[in-house]
Design goal:
- The chain contains five helices and no strands.
- The protein is mostly helical and 192 residues long.
- The protein starts with 11 loop residues before the first helix and ends in a 23-residue tail after the last helix.
């Protein structure tokens, strides 16, 4: 390498491409998490139906259906949050937002992003600490059917970390109209 050619930081366009690609990978990972969330909901429904049939038809209630359904609600919620944020699948206050000036919309977006960042960071940090503490302490749910509590807190950590990464990488996200593989879960309006 000659003296005039010094290695420096990548060009801004290169950084944008790398971060955009990282965001694309993240959105796909969060999509898989959202599919997992849906599968958890289906499993909860099956467990509830099984428990009802066993309880009222055979007078033999299960010990595991209630605790697994409670854990399933937690898992389904926190696994779906990052992808919903990535595709703007959450509820917007567009009645007010549409009436704002472009500058006020930018300010509202920044404030919303900062609040989401703070919430996601707190959720990830507290979920991590609680999962680690429960794992080290060997804490399990009460009753005959014991579930390790750290697994429940781990879903809070994973959901918080996913949301945090979505917020951090969102400025490099390509608009939905520029994405080459649009599907029902990848566009702003196409959330099912």
């Amino acid at each position: 390498m000659s003296g005039s050619e010094e290695a420096g930081p990548p060009a801004p366009g290169g950084v944008r491409r790398v971060l955009g690609a990282a965001d694309g990978v993240l959105v796909r990972i969060t999509w898989v998490m959202r599919i997992g969330s849906g599968l958890v909901i289906v499993a909860m429904m099956a467990a509830t139906v099984y428990d009802v049939v066993m309880r009222y038809v055979f007078a033999a209630p299960t010990e595991w259906a209630l605790i697994l359904s409670a854990a399933g609600v937690l898992a389904a919620t926190f696994l779906a949050i990052p992808h919903l944020a990535a595709v703007h699948g959450h509820i917007d206050m567009d009645l007010v937002y549409r009436r704002l000036s472009p500058h006020a919309k930018t300010v509202a977006d920044v404030v919303s992003g900062l609040a989401t960042f703070a919430f996601a960071a707190a959720m990830a940090w507290l979920g991590y600490r609680a999962a680690l503490t429960a794992y080290v302490g060997g804490v399990v749910t009460s009753g005959n059917f014991s579930v390790p509590i750290w697994t429940l807190y781990a879903t809070v950590y994973v959901g918080g970390l996913g949301l945090l990464l979505v917020v951090v990488l969102s400025p490099w996200r390509r608009p939905a109209d520029e994405q080459e593989d649009e599907g029902p879960l990848t566009t702003r309006e196409g959330v099912s």
